[in-house]
Write a structure and sequence with these properties.
This protein is of the alpha/beta class and 351 residues long. It folds into two domains: 185 residues, 3-Layer(aba) Sandwich (Rossmann fold); 137 residues, Rossmann fold, CATH 3.40.50. The protein has 14 helices and twelve strands. The strands form three sheets. The protein has a five-stranded parallel sheet with strand order 5-4-3-6-7. A five-stranded mixed sheet has the order 10-9-8-11-12, sandwiched between helices. It is elongated, with a radius of gyration of 21 Å.
């Protein structure tokens, strides 16, 4: 009965398109751009149907999707990078955002495709099923996300869904780009984007030899309570991006990763001696955190803290979001990130 009521709700919401969601001015702008990209698209398209296996089973896409909804973190960046305008996307929920509730690089990509007012779902507290259904999507693409199976099933009543392939929130930027592109029938184009971005990273890294071979970890530490803090593990996109930028994962972090399937682990301040092999710490934290850590008798013993080799990522900045990389955020923010990492590397004391 609950499923039938949900189906009736979705049907009603589609009928109300002129009132909510994709009936807005934002959607009209997106509609025009979708039509334009569909007519002018020259990208190679894979043969359909396409079946993608994922954490909840498999999804078959019968024909090339034209009306794409992107949910979760930065999945719309792949769609936009491939020259296609999604009819609805999730709002950004961390870092610097534009008036459209999007990250700067995403908003710029929409504008480049002729859309000034994209259709953005306010889904920070839960999926807006009515607004999503009102867009009448051909597909919902969200390979970097954290759906529950119940949410996946509800969204599948609206359109075929491509969620994370194995584990929630563990999709790196390469997997995200290629999976999302595959769902669009544009796998080869997605692979080309990845190759071009890898080449860009290599080109940029050539100017920062001081990073090569150094160890680095990504952390979340609260200045108000440093009794425990979080370390992101190598299966998390933030941590794995440090590897892309020429840095090695410390053995201490690898050891912690072997004891859990999560993307982060909690560390007690009393156990900071385990981080003696961390050359550089990248930390979500506000101004003043480094000084507070250096004043703490235990935190100050971490070599990176002692040396000041800490990159603080303020939550209000564009880089706060870009350190969880996407195919669009990497070229947008890589110079700033490498510059900060270089500053930290130059503070490392060598014996």
């Amino acid at each position: 009965m609950k499923k039938r009521l949900f189906t009736l709700l979705i049907t009603a919401s589609i009928a109300a398109t002129s009132i909510i969601g994709c009936g807005s001015t934002a959607e009209n702008s997106s509609e025009n751009a979708v039509a334009a990209t569909a007519q002018s698209s020259t990208q190679e398209t894979s043969e359909f149907p396409i079946t993608i296996k994922h954490a909840f089973g498999e999804t078959t896409i019968e024909s090339k999707p034209e009306r794409i909804v992107n949910l979760g973190w930065a999945n719309q960046d792949t769609t936009l990078a491939l020259g296609v305008v999604p009819v609805g996307v999730s709002a950004a929920n961390y870092g610097m955002m534009t008036d459209n509730k999007l990250h700067l690089w995403t908003d710029e990509a929409f504008a480049d495709l002729g859309v000034e007012n994209p259709n953005v779902f306010n889904d920070e507290t839960g999926w807006d099923y009515e607004a999503i259904a009102a867009c009448e999507p051909d597909i919902i693409i969200a390979s970097y996300s954290g759906f529950t199976e119940e949410e996946y099933n509800l969204l599948s009543e609206i359109a075929p869904v491509v969620p994370f392939l194995e584990t929630a929130w563990k999709t790196n930027w390469r997997e995200q780009t290629i999976t999302n592109a595959t769902a669009m029938g544009m796998k080869s184009d997605g692979e080309k984007l990845v190759d071009e971005t890898d080449a860009l990273i290599a080109e940029k890294l050539a100017d920062y030899p001081e990073l090569n071979g150094k160890t680095a970890g990504y952390f979340w530490i609260s200045q108000d309570d440093m009794s425990t803090f979080y370390a992101y593990l190598p299966n998390d996109p933030r941590a794995s991006y440090l590897n892309d930028l020429g840095l090695k994962t410390p053995e201490s972090i690898l050891s912690l990763a072997s004891s859990t399937e999560d993307f982060s682990v909690t560390i007690s301040r009393e156990n900071t001696e385990t981080l003696n092999d961390v050359d550089i710490m990248v930390v979500y934290g506000d101004e003043g955190l480094l000084e507070a850590m250096q004043a703490d008798p235990l935190m100050s013993q971490i070599p990176a803290v002692k040396n000041g080799a800490v990159v603080l990522i303020d939550s209000t900045t564009a880089l706060a979001a870009a350190t969880t990389p996407s195919i669009l955020s990497i070229p947008y923010a890589i110079d700033d990130y490498l510059s900060l990492l270089s500053e930290a590397a130059n503070k490392i004391e060598t014996e």
